[in-house]
Amino acid sequence: MLMKQILFILIGLSLISSCGEEEAYIPVPTPVNLEVPNNFPEVAYNFENNTLTEEGIALGKKLFYEGKLAKDNIISCGFCHEQASGFTHHGHTISHGINGNEGFRNAQPTQNLAFFSEFGWDGASIHLDLQPIIPITSEFEMGETLASIVQKIAVEKEYNTLFSNAFGDAEVTSERILKALAQFILTQISANSKYDKVIRSEENTSFTETEAKGFQVFKNKCASCHSGALFTDKTYRNNGIPVNPKFATEEEGRKRVTGAAEDFYKFRVPSLRNIAVTFPYMHDGRFRTLESVLDFYTDGMTENGGVIDPSLINADGSFGIDLTKLEKAQIIAFLQTLTDYEYLNDKRFAEF
Amino acid sequence: MTFLKYITIITLATQMLSCIANIEDEVSDIEGTIELKFDNSYNDNDLLLNTTSYDAVGSEQVKISTIKYIVSNISLEDNNGNVFTYPKEDAFFIIDEADTASQKVNLYNIPAGSYKKITFGIGVDQETYSKGADGQGTLLAKAQEMGMMWSWQAGYRFFRFEGDYTSSTITTATAFAFHMGSHGSQLDNYKEVSLAFPNSIKVREEAKPSVHIVANIATVLNGTTAFLLEDAAEIHVDAIKSPQIAENVQQMFSVHHVHN
After folding, report:
1. How far is the alpha carbon of B256 from chain A, nearest alpha carbon, in Å?
2. Which positions in chain B touch A50 (Cβ < 8 Å)?
3. Residue B135 pLDDT
4. A50 touching B (Cβ < 8 Å)
5. Which residues contact A139 (CB under 8 A, 6 or more apart)?
6. Which of the two residues, B205 and B248, has the higher pLDDT score?
7. Which of A152, A232, A264, B227 is the most buried (most CB within 10 A)?
8. CA angle A99, A103, A104 (to 5 degrees)
9. ipTM of the assembly?
10. pTM
11. Which of B172, B181, B255, B180 is nearest to B221 (CA)?
């Protein structure tokens, strides 16, 4: 009998506490597996430090379209990164921010960033999480401080729930804001263009004759830099673009980041996916059409104070790529196959 | 009383005992606090901002308005050669000459023992960058508030040194500014500083030893590399000069004394 009582007491005690810790309700976020298209390279982002979850992505999307990330409470990330334009700033040479302030660069698409480890025209960020700090804090763009956006977001009831769902509690930190933004951006994968379907032999898709010829010319004349499934070798190169006199003092290209003289006016080789809808082109958006871009490569290159990329210098020392008018038209027809209409209309990425 | 019941009793009793044992383990780990004092000087004198003109290289004289730097990755070596690494996430500090409170850094929960050496980083290491936002605690927001982030790149300024200068040829006060940090993935300017204590510090529960670290700011201009401000008064991101500044900064620290 005594033994029985002891047993009950012991069971009772062990039920009351397990080393005295109370179990509280903690929302558990739902993990998401990022689907990588089979013609794509490996993901460069390390998910170990930022697990992709449904709730994290949802919070990131809300923040991507949140005007409160800017000083004027209006300019969101989505202001310059519009989905219909492949997440670029439609029709703007250089993107503008709060109070109509203008920087000196053209907004880049936010697609396929999961496959990159450096960001921006000059590699100014070496981690996707940290990239949004630049536009958020730039006086030309959103003009805010991280401390201030944390305060603004923390008082919003709606965000209490969103943060709790994504991170287990309602605390708002810059770390969490940046992680959630990264999660949303990481899901923006564009891999369903006509080109992809041809490459993956899907839906009986094939190139037209002009597109196929354009693809051949492209492979011979452009693909040494615009290589692979992402259409960029991710290097920084000086393509002989004339110095823009409007930003002669500010713009130094990659030299701004590395401080190395030889990096003057070098810019990241951009991806060409969705290129037909992400006009205007080049780091300062100076060219409105793909025709202008190709005309530049045949006739417009010049000394610009930096080291012109050797791949663009001909045997006789002249600059440029040799292309006929017909070849240009064929290349453009091919580039148009890189437009991914499923991505551009994907409701998962849309503001409304 | 069946056999099963005995097993249950034993299991439950063991479970409770292990709880008690855990509590005892925690109690037996005695921990203490260490204070680090970062004292910026100019050669033999206490550094005064916006007040005194100090001799620099050649005929140049500097009046300093800003000194700020990021301290990170702190570890302590005890007399037996064991290294205690302070939790990385809690080990980011920004020392600002204009803010006295920032110059005293408290390190908590240091295992009791006698320590002979301290190692810390100046700046933010590449490992931290490679983790993105993860594990940076409040540093991102704090660094930005304190002007220790560049606005055009997502990176920290490790070291800020500003003021104005004159020389035999430049007689009107002219602004100078050195801002040093890593250059994206291209150039890692993070440096480690290791300093032995003149006598070991004894960390105990009841005692709070203090380490007085002097940073001789004169070394920034006149260390391994001598910088004439006349040649370059503004150095922000420079592939050759920024690493030289980082090296000079690394050399400016010494432990003056410790209190037990």
Report:
1. 36
2. 132-134
3. 81
4. yes
5. A98, A101, B151
6. B248
7. B227
8. 155
9. 0.80
10. 0.85
11. B180
Report chain A's mean pLDDT, rounded to a whole number.
92
Task: Indicate which of B9, B140, B241 best probes the interface with A, i.e. most A CBs within 10 Å of its own CB.
Answer: B140
pLDDT in tens, A96-150: 888 888 888 999 999 999 999 999 999 999 999 999 999 999 988 999 999 999 9
**pLDDT tens track for B171-207:** 999 999 999 999 988 899 999 999 999 999 999 988 8
Measure the CA–CA gap between A248 and A265, rounded to whole angstroms.
11
Instruction: Closest CB to B152: pick one of A145, A256, A258.
Output: A256
Share of chain A above pLDDT 70, in %: 93
Q: Which of these, A253, A258, A255, lies nearest to A269 by C-alpha position?
A: A253
Give CA B138 to chain center in angstroms.
Answer: 16
Q: Which of A13, A18, A258 sits opposite B183 (nearest CB)?
A: A258
Say yes or no for a CB contact (<8 Å) between B136 and A261: no
Nearest to B134 among A150, A175, A256 (CB): A175
CB neighbour list of residue A223: distance below 8 Å, 6 or more residues apart: none
Residue pointed to by tokens 């030889």: A262
Burial class (CB in 10 A: 0-12, 13-18, 19+), A342: exposed
Q: Are A298 and A180 in contact (CB under 8 A)?
A: no
B138 pLDDT above the threshold of 90: no
User: Taking a C-beta distance cutoff of 8 angstroms, is the pair A91, A102 a contact?
Assistant: no
Residue of chain A nearest B243, judged by CA positions:
A259
Q: What is the pLDDT of residues B8-35, one digit of tens each?
A: 555 545 454 444 444 433 334 799 999 9
Q: Is A82 exposed, middle or buried (0-12, 13-18, 19+ CB in 10 A)?
A: middle
Write the burial class of residue B158 (CB in 10 Å: 0-12 exposed, 13-18 middle, 19+ buried). Answer: buried
Q: Does A125 contact B15 at a Cβ distance shorter than 8 Å?
A: no
Chain B residues close to A137, C-beta within 8 Å: 144, 149, 151
Quickly count: other Cβ atoms within 10 Å of residue A69's Cβ: 25
Query: Which amino acid type is present at position A137?
Result: T
Nearest-Cα distance to chain B for A107, in Å, is 14
